[in-house]
Amino acid sequence: xxxxxxxxDQPTAxxxxxxxxxxxxxxxxxxxxxxxxxxxxxxxxGHHLQLDDVVALSRILPDGQQVKIYGVVSQLRARQEGASxxxxxxxxxxxxxxxxxxEAALVQPTRFEPEILVPPxxxxxxxxxxxLERDIALSFDTVARDRKLPAGLSRNNEPVFxxxxxxxxxxxxxxxxxxxxxxxxxxxxxxxxxxxxxASGTLGAEAANTRALIFNxxxxxxxxxxxxxxxxxxxxxxxxxxxxxxPGPFRDVGVLAPPRKGxxxxxxxxxxxxxxxxxxxxxxxDFCQQRLLPFLFADAEDERQQYTIVVQAVTxxxxxxxxxxxxxVTLDGRLIQTFAQLxxxxxxxxxxxxxxxxxxxxxxGRAVGTGTINAFIRRLASARRHVEHLVRADIGRAQEHAxxxxxxQVTVIDIHSLHDRAKRFVVGVVLRQAFxxxxxxxxxxxxxxxxxxxxxxxxxxxxxxxxxxxxxxxAERGRSLGIVLIxxxxxxxxxxRRIVANSAIRVVGRLDPAEARRDEYGFLPAVARQRSTILxxxxxxxxxxxxxxxxxxxxxxxxxxxxxxxxxxxxxSSDTAAPADDGxxxxxxxxxxx
Amino acid sequence: xxxxxxxxxxxxxxxxxxxxxxxxxxxSTRPVDPSVEIAPQDWRPIEPTVAVDERSLPTVVFVDGxxxxxxxxxxxxxxxxxxxxxxxxxxxxxSVAAGAVRCTPGRAEIxxxxxxxxxxxxxxxxxxxxxxxxxxxxxxxYELRPVADDSDExxxxxxxxxxxxxxxxxxxxxxxxxxxxxxxxxxxxANSTQQPSQQSSGDDTPTAVGYIKTQHVQYLSPxxxxxxxxxxxxxxxxxxxxxxxxxxxSWYLRLPAPVAHAMSGxxxxxxxxxxxxxxxxxxxAISRADMVSRLLPRFASEPHKDGRxxxxxxxxxxxxxxxxxxxxxxxxxxxxxxxxTAAGRSTTIPSPSTLATNRVGLS
Lengths: 594, 363
Fold this sequence. Notes:
Chain A is of the alpha/beta class. Helices cover 24% and strands 21% of the residues of chain A. Chain A has three domains: 131 residues, no CATH class; 285 residues, Rossmann fold; 104 residues, no CATH class. Chain B is an alpha+beta fold. Chain B has seven helices and twelve strands. At the A-B interface, helix 1 of A face strand 4, strand 5 and helix 6 of B.
């Protein structure tokens, strides 16, 4: 088949001519409608197209103008023409019935150049777009070189980029990742994006001051980011090359873990990592003065709850208390060093020993009944067990154990061992403090990235809480303040809409089939939705504002340890993790990722 | 040539059934001799005894053609001495196609295909009609094919003849060492101007077999005809010769099908006797008849898949479907014809005519 020669058939980008010597892979077919949004291509004999292939074609308009149409193959079909019954295939196989096998590819256009939205004409030759033409097709050429953030590899190992303008707040911010736990590799992809940012040079000079905060919610998976991955083989390491990234661990990582319960020395409660882990907690004075009490109550801002009046009143009273030098407070002359003591003191204020004595309305709020006060006390008492090791002034230099996100480039806060209430408390308080700090500084740079999995737990769609409010603040105002949320959840349908809606970059790993049908994934074309239910670990759909279709990317196996068993030795450190004990010999390296 | 396109759809008027193929060319008056293989009194169903290796079946080529009337037209007679034309004469625009399917074990492929279009008329003013490429691409030309008179039968015979010629043209190029099965009697091919090359003797050339799926002519006497009713699936009758201008040896075969009546699933087959005679002819014919009878049942269609099962063999059905497709959409062709008449209207002075719906001037 001779390729028709069009005038000016050489695609150009940035003034560079592109060698368009690609053979014709097929022709736009004419029995299905070709539209500017979707069209079918009959694949020529001797050629093949596969899903996610990038293709290009040209159409000459009646006025002589050439429109180049670029697209991505989203579905393929093959059929026997001439067969009208299913069982005809046996006749054809026996050589009894003549038939012709034909293949066709469904293409979703990604770009029209110039942007004249016409359908391609049936019979138009279609070629596979490679090199520069592929970049044009995927709009990579419109992104400045230093704004291209490597986001993974296409199926034929070509890099896929994100426009960093949509991540750093210039034009948009926030990433939202959905997928089934265990196989969707959500947190691995989140850490890959972070690594890509720090290592690709996209951040430029800011890289040194940019900070990332990662909440480790499951296992001790993220405590070893600064260790090379001992399971990274040469083949996987080579996949970093096309991305322009050096394979290696994160360089500057601080790991914070809650103190061990009941340990008077407050040693961090980690099982596999001991060196380089600091405990974190708040002093009683911090707790009172920074008004952290509401974060203990998941529904404190739900106005239907009467006891929220008490929460507000008590919070206000605690803020007034005088602090001692070592982080304790005094109340009516009582020295309060532990959370237990604080709870007792509050109880004493709200439930006077003499039942006839009226309750101090400054503490209980006006016109609050005994039942309401009891509801508050009940909740406070039940929180005590879960957070008492996180709020304390009973050890020396307690103030130094406050969470400080500026100390390292990447701060990992391990909350996996905490009770749900304590998790919410820690996440809420840390985010509030980071947000307040940004608000005070008044400038967006350097950026603060926050990686948080299980968003559905912290910002559920159907209820209100101080933690959800702070997450909403981040989602809606973080872009201008320089806080970028990389949030993840199993099911986007259970997360507050405004948080998902404010994410410029949407990522989807393996989805539950019922979940994939929900409106939250409307950005995925029907075929992609179907495919999302069979995505293998390490493959994600990435939707970005620049492209009308999401791209399937594979990210290379993490070069940093993602679980204790993978942690290799860090040069100059004797801190090695527990020896690898999973001798599963699984061929799929991604099998253990989350 | 001025012509108008009949506004009735071309399908109305006359039916061109498959029966016509045999009816036209196969008068029952041809001499029949039922004693060429077995004496008439010994006639009985014969089980073909030839051993066939399923893994190395010989190549079987099926040759068939299709035809379709695209439009009926009326051609104006030339004006005499400036007088308006007094009358129009009928013509038929038709598309014909022929093709061959080569069936080898594990693969049936359409091997050769010819598509032609013709204008069949008895009018002296007939001219080829060139379809413009601007409206629809690659429609081609209706070449002029004069026919004997204005009757429908003459025009349809012209179409049929054209198709047979194409089948014939194909058979020239069909190579192979096996069987070539023609859909229809062999005699039709003999009516053509050329003689089929494969009719010459020699075992390395393909054997031409005529395949007649509908039985309109009774060749055998009633008592011998009864043997057909006694055929089991896969059995054949003894050979009988049919004389005439193009002599053949023929037999009946029952294809696999539920036996609902005496002729269920029965087909008639023909071998040309040209170039052979005597004992050699008899031995050759019997071996070929056995071979064909063993091979054909495997191509027989099933009732739920084909309205003419089992006689309409799968390869032939597939070929016909493909050929019909290649004929193109008759609505597109008819529209192209009408466009020609519409385009001509502005340059030709309309003349009174009983059918002055669409008129045309062709240079």
